[in-house]
Write a structure and sequence with these properties.
alpha/beta; Rossmann fold; 9-stranded mixed β-sheet; two-stranded antiparallel sheet; 6 helices; 13 strands; about 30% strand; binds uracil; transferase; Uracil phosphoribosyltransferase; nucleotide-binding; glycosyltransferase; GTP-binding
């Protein structure tokens, strides 16, 4: 069976709203941060729909026994924010996945070569089989950072079919790179934009997500 990268652009009005707030260059830092938190929340909601493992049991209501569905506490759920900008989506993701373990990975891209290099890796040596990993990386421009992280995750035993990336804006270049090497992956993004400028920024995009989040 051949797999193809699955890319979802949810049409939820709240996602469109917060994306527009984030794109607007006049949005001040505090509001930009709120917009990213909301995008993290709603995109995580969409990304976890058919991905969170559940167990079936029964509860007793005040009136009668009733079939019940709970999140399976045995299956590890992990969130990996790619520093720096991935932190902007973390609060929203964590609001929905309060018991998830958070492993920080710092990747910085060389502004000339646009290659990503890793300066912080808090991933464990090995992840248990079946671990679900949600990656937060708001701007999938060349896709280099997410590609590097996916290699690290696969080396640690994670099945790419159980990895979901939550992004805010994706460029076709990133989708092509990630789809070529990780076809089982799923991406949830608020928008797919036209492409990149000569400095590797997404156009129209929203500018530098890290700078706008942290006011630098
Ligand atoms: N990183 C950003 O923050 N913005 C872009 O447009 C591309 C990479």
């Amino acid at each position: 069976m051949s797999l193809t990268l699955r890319v979802y652009v949810p049409s939820h009005p709240l996602i469109k709203h917060w994306l527009s707030v984030a794109r607007d260059e006049s949005t001040p830092t505090v509001l930009f941060r709120s917009a990213m938190t909301e995008l993290g929340r709603w995109l995580t909601y969409e990304a976890t729909r058919d991905w969170l493992p559940t167990t079936e049991s029964e509860v007793q209501t005040p009136l009668a026994p009733c079939p019940a569905t709970f999140i399976d506490p045995e299956v590890p759920i992990v969130v990996v924010p790619i520093l720096r900008a991935g932190l902007a989506l973390l609060d929203g993701a964590q609001a929905l996945l309060p018991l998830a373990s958070i492993y920080h990975v710092g990747l910085v891209r060389n502004e000339e070569t646009l290659e990503a290099s890793c300066y912080l890796n808090k991933l464990p040596e090995q992840m248990p089989p079946g671990t679900r990993v949600l990656v937060t990386d708001p701007m999938l421009a060349t896709g280099g950072s997410s590609h590097s992280l996916l290699k690290l995750l696969v080396e640690r035993g994670v099945d790419p079919a159980l990895i979901r990336i939550v992004a805010v804006v994706a460029a076709p270049q990133a989708l092509q790179l990630l789809g070529a090497d990780f076809p089982a992956l799923s991406i949830f993004t608020a928008a797919i934009d036209e492409g990149l400028n000569d400095r590797g920024y997404i156009v129209p995009g929203l500018g530098d997500a890290g700078d706008r989040t942290f006011g630098t």
